[in-house]
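Now read these lines:
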Amino acid sequence: MAKIFGDAKPWQLVVIALGVLGGIGGVTWMIMNDEAVELTHEVTLADVTTGELFTVSTKKRSVIIPEVSPTSGKQTLVRVEKNAQGKWIAVPQDLDSLAEDTVRSAIQENNEVIAKGEPKSLTIK
């Protein structure tokens, strides 16, 4: 045993053994755990000028923010999330990525979107 571990001190062997046992325990827990994490493959976008809502699939293509609006052809689409009150809120970082001269008539002070209708499906090429 001395040849395998060389000059390793006993406490170092204990640390290695605990690491191996922890790794085995973690892998076992992951395998035995029935709770699967479900990743969503779509994102909801809002046009900051019109308030139109769109749902975009992210299975085959990533969304680049700001995304181009199919209505205006300008980069005015940002991600939105529904809050507890059911209102659409624009992601602040996405609003920061818009061009300075972008008209944001559908965005209120608290980043709430004045939404027009329900989200429509949008395919991004």
Observations:
- Strands lie at 42-47, 52-57, 67-68, 75-82, 88-90, 116-122.
- The mean pLDDT is 89.
- The helical segments are 2-5, 10-32, 92-96.
- Residues 48 and 68 are 11 Å apart (CA to CA).
